[in-house]
Amino acid sequence: MLRIAMVAILFAVGSSVSVAKPPADTNYDETKVPSYELPNALIDNAGQSVGRDEWVAHRRGEVLRMFEDSVYGKTPSRKLAVKYEVVETDSNALDGRATRKQIAAFFGDDPYRLDILMYIPNQATGPVAGFVGLNFNGNHTIHADSEIIQRGTAKARGSSASRWQLEKIIDHGYALVTVHRDQVDPDNYRNDFTDGIHPLFYDEGQTKPEPTEWGSIGAWAWSLSRVLDYLETDGQVDASRIAVIGHSRLGKAALWAGAQDTRFAMVISNDSGCGGAALYRRCYGERIHHMIKPVGYWFCTNHQQYQHREHALPVDQHMLMALVAPRPLYVASATNDGWADPKGEYLAAKHAGPVYELFDKPALSQSQPPVPDQPIHTTIGYHLRTGDHGITAYDWEQYLKFADPYLSKP
């Protein structure tokens, strides 16, 4: 029983570690995908068809509330006092190619600290566009740069550098901004919501979120918006041209951040799977009941009621992507990542199309995913990369190419 549980945990977190097998009831057979009918994003809760005006006026808000109530939980609206302190800067980082900034953001009366790491290309002649994303293992792991402050993790310096492709991003003219996920809300499989940012929002006597209040994905998404708040104060960055990006569970957070915060100019999901880009109703690869025991804290408690009942969800992930419209959206998958259901990720992006079309934005038209390594770039981008669960140089090449028409100066 212990071995089965550990296998479930490893698959649930999108581990690249080789394991003997997924949970026994995992479906990787397309012929066993149940028939399903997706909720119509353009039929409101009163049963009425909506056009562009109705989508903007009320339907978008309905969809957002359904995701809050049944999937991610509601993010607190309370504003915390915040103070920013630039603790380190170097205008000659990366052999002169970039300016490195390290900012401590202090939230609340008993200050809670988040460390923001920024790299800004020195070739820029004015405020630059950029990418914002959370990292898994500490700011110091995104590059071997010895001056990056290391806090709260013993992971090796530069150990995640391949996932960030910092020089490639800088040379392309974009800034990169990141925060360590565990500084926001620890992802430790025993999360009791006492050692992250949740307690800053508790009412008197409260010790955990209510059933419809945010879990860890909501907290991570909240932090991405707080980074954007800071960027609005930094004259070297154009905060109106920022893409939010995430891989795996942090891809789920990036999608939820982009859905809630329309200030993000672009949203990118890399291998985010169940609870991220993949359609729940396909019941392929990872499913809700696989996640609830080891990582149920990612979601609101209400999400538990949909175990083995995906068809009862009032939403599906095409509607999450529709909340990004009309802004550009990119979804990426990997051929060896069946756990994340690449076909389900593509279909969710495709079925977001009708909302994009309300805004006269081209969407995905072909009924099936493209062949591997043949990206599609419309307002909704998609590629299926050959290889394993991960974010690679190839993925970043597509994101940079896709971003140029949207994030470049008008």
User: CATH H level: which superfamily?
Assistant: Alpha/Beta hydrolase fold, catalytic domain
- Give the % helix: 25-40%
Q: Label the structural class.
A: alpha/beta
CATH fold category name:
Rossmann fold
GO molecular function: carboxylic ester hydrolase activity
Domain 4-O-methyl-glucuronoyl methylesterase-like: 170-358
Keywords: Hydrolase, Serine esterase, Signal
Protein name: 4-O-methyl-glucuronoyl methylesterase-like domain-containing protein
Fold and architecture overview:
This protein has 410 residues and is an alpha/beta fold. It has a single domain (65-79, 130-407), classed as Alpha/Beta hydrolase fold, catalytic domain (Rossmann fold, 3-Layer(aba) Sandwich), CATH 3.40.50. Helix content is 29%, strand content 18%. The protein has twelve helices and ten strands. It has helices at residues 2-12, 52-72, 93-96, 166-171, 181-184, 216-231, 249-260, 288-295, 317-322, 342-351, 353-358, 393-407; strands at 82-92, 98-107, 112-121, 128-135, 175-180, 237-247, 266-270, 329-334, 376-377, 380-385. It has a ten-stranded mixed β-sheet with strand order 1-2-3-5-4-6-7-8-10-9, with helices on both faces. Residues 1-20 have low confidence and may be disordered.
What's the short version?
The chain has 410 residues and is of the alpha/beta class. The chain has helices spanning 2-12, 52-72, 93-96, 166-171, 181-184, 216-231, 249-260, 288-295, 317-322, 342-351, 353-358, 393-407; strands spanning 82-92, 98-107, 112-121, 128-135, 175-180, 237-247, 266-270, 329-334, 376-377, 380-385. It has a 10-stranded mixed sheet, with helices on both faces.
